[in-house]
Write a structure and sequence with these properties.
The structure holds two protein chains of two kinds. By secondary structure, chain A is mainly alpha-helical. Chain A has helices at about 20-25, 25-50, 60-70, 80-110, 125-130, 130-150, 160-170, 175-200, 210-235. Chain A has one domain: 3 helical TM bundles of succinate and fumarate reductases (Up-down Bundle). Chain A is built from nine helices and no strands. Chain A starts with 18 loop residues before the first helix and ends in a 5-residue tail after the last helix. Chain B has helices at about 35-45, 115-125, 145-155, 165, 175-185, 195-205, 220, 230-245; strands spanning about 5-10, 20-25, 70, 75, 95-100, 110, 115. Chain B has two domains: about 5-110, Beta-grasp domain (Ubiquitin-like (UB roll), Roll); about 115-245, Orthogonal Bundle (Fumarate Reductase Iron-sulfur Protein, Chain B, domain 2). Chain B contains eight helices and seven strands; from the N terminus they run ββαβββββααααααα. The chains are: A mainly alpha, B alpha+beta. At the A-B interface, helix 1, helix 2, helix 4 and helix 8 of A face helix 6 and helix 8 of B. Bound molecules: protoporphyrin IX containing FE, iron/sulfur cluster (SF4) and FE2/S2 (inorganic) cluster.
């Protein structure tokens, strides 16, 4: 029996694009790229936060830890190779995440050009601040690298002495305040972002929903408290 | 009851619109929101004005034709359709704002009426199962597990009203599209087109100018049929699975 009609499917290119390419074409796929890159950054931040806490054990242990980071993977990997691989991965993640966020946000704003006369925001603060919070985080990352990695804007700026560099930087109250504000933005970003990523990647389900929300809150609180403890310790003289 | 209505009036798609204020008196608490608009329109017609245009059909909450934004909420303060919303949910003397669905993909046709054919195009691109008609198979030939039947049924409840798009700060049609994908992909009858369905429907959805999902959950809060937010999670899973599996071999 012949079918009388045939459904017109969308035309697709002869050569299938790469996985990243086909994901990038759709809103759902691009959001998945954001989720994966966000989770990569999140995993890095957990390790970074734990590492930072070594500052409470004094300059010897902290500077030694910083040196050890450069030797990871040795003798297979040369000095600092691991760190450079990590940096490439993180830069790729930040760029993909940021570009996807920008493109999707532009599209979202264009899709709802007219506001209601009596707007009602029923979503959480964390959800509503993802875009501006993300911009703050992006600016923070640039400043943070200039301050403590390249030491360009660091008042101490001694390579190989991260403990002293951190203390010198946070001894200025306004620098500590900016850092703390950025970490609060980070906490909010993760509070919505971690659960959102679970939803975006299809890992969520009605049964797991509460667990993912709880994990998002726990991760957000843990990272914020952990990161904020360092400037607070410097300001209060616990670390000096 | 007596209300001050501020209603969006717009002559046609090209004209500029504005909120226009009307006083309506003699409203019964048992009137539906649409009956209250009928009541206003009768008065407008008698005084030689053009009545307010709004969409409606069944007036029993099952067709999806009606829908207006009431005080910033799609279908108003109760979780139901505008035709099933009763005036007893408002306080006597309230000022009520009535606006059309706002989304780039749903252009205003007139007053409170918007063009929702973008939804039809999303459905046409994959919201079906292909079966030869004229030789209908025996209904029991394909067993459907109870859990799958329940899941499909819950998501088939979508009436295509568009409240999800209207409520979404991004004008996204993800909840609507997800309801259909979950419904059909849960069933054995939907299995042959499982991958092409989700890929094509998302493609079409994007092409209509709907926004992307930021998981704000406004859609599921507004949906009169209780389509859950988890539907979007399932759509995402189906989409990623189909992209990895069926990339490039869609017919
Ligand atoms: C470069 C600066 C950043 C910008 C501009 C940015 C922006 C955004 C935006 C706009 C969203 C989508 C929000 C939504 O859908 O509601 C998002 C989601 C997300 N972000 Fe970021 N963000 C940045 C940095 C970060 C960092 C440092 C992390 C790591 C902890 C991160 C983790 C996430 C996660 C996990 C998501 C969820 C993805 C999803 O919804 O599927 N972001 N980001
Ligand atoms: S998902 Fe709900 S709100 Fe959206 S069109 Fe269907 S019934 Fe209406
Ligand atoms: S008129 Fe049919 S659902 Fe309201």
């Amino acid at each position: 029996m012949a079918l009388a009609t045939r459904t017109q499917h969308a035309q697709h290119p002869q050569h299938p694009p790469s996985l990243l390419g086909s994901l990038w074409r759709s809103t759902v796929g691009k959001k998945a790229v954001m989720a994966v890159t966000g989770l990569i950054m999140l995993a890095y931040l957990v390790a970074h936060m734990i590492g930072n806490l070594k500052i409470f054990f004094g300059p010897g242990e902290f500077d030694h830890y910083a040196h050890w980071l450069r030797t990871i993977g040795g003798p297979v990997l040369h000095y600092e190779w691991f760190l450079w691989i990590l940096r490439v991965v993180l830069v790729a993640a930040v760029v993909l995440h940021g570009v996807a966020a920008y493109q999707l946000s532009r599209r979202d704003l264009a899709a709802r050009p007219v506001k209601y006369a009596r707007p009602r925001a029923r979503t959480s603060y964390a959800t509503r601040t993802m875009r501006w919070g993300g911009v703050i985080l992006g600016l923070f990352v640039v400043w943070h690298i200039l301050d403590l990695t390249t030491l360009t804007v660091n008042p101490n700026a001694q390579h190989g002495h991260p403990y002293a560099n951190v203390v010198a930087s946070f001894d200025r109250w306004y620098v500590a305040a900016f850092y703390i504000a950025a970490m609060l933005a980070l906490g909010l970003h993760i509070r919505h972002g971690f659960w959102s990523a679970a939803q975006t990647l299809g890992a969520n389900s009605p049964r797991r929903d509460r667990a993912f929300k709880a994990a998002a809150n726990a991760l957000a609180a843990l990272l914020t408290v952990g990161f904020v403890s360092v400037p607070v310790a410097v300001l209060t003289g616990i670390v000096s | 009851m007596k209300f001050t209505l501020r209603v969006w009036r717009q002559r046609d798609a090209a004209a500029a619109g504005a909120m226009t204020t009307y006083e309506v008196d003699g409203v019964s608490a048992d009137m539906s929101f649409l009956e209250m608009l009928d009541h206003l329109n009768e008065r407008l017609i008698l005084s030689g004005d053009t009545p307010v245009a709004f969409d409606h059909d069944c007036r029993e909450g099952i067709c999806g034709a009606c829908g207006v934004v009431i005080n910033g909420q799609a279908h108003g303060p109760e979780r139901t359709t505008a035709c099933q919303l009763h005036m007893r949910h408002f306080r006597d003397g309230d000022t009520i704002d009535v606006e059309p669905w706002r989304a780039e993909a749903f252009p205003v046709v007139r007053d409170l009426v918007v063009d929702r054919s973008a939804f039809d195009r999303v459905i046409a691109s994959g919201g079906y199962v292909s079966v030869p008609t004229g030789s209908a198979p025996e209904a029991h030939a394909t067993p459907v597990p109870k859990a799958a039947a329940d899941l499909a049924f819950d998501h088939a409840a979508c009436i295509g009203c568009g409240a999800c798009v209207a409520a979404c700060p991004n004008g996204s049609a993800m909840l609507f599209t997800a309801a259909k994908v979950v419904h059909l992909n849960a069933l054995p009858q939907g299995a042959p087109e499982r991958e092409s369905r989700v890929l094509d429907m998302v493609d079409t959805m994007d092409a209509q100018g709907f926004g992307g999902c930021t998981n704000t959950g406004e859609c599921a809060t507004a949906c009169p049929k209780g389509i859950p937010l988890s539907a979007i999670g399932t759509l995402n899973r189906e989409y990623l699975r189909a992209t990895v599996k069926g990339r490039g071999n869609r017919d």
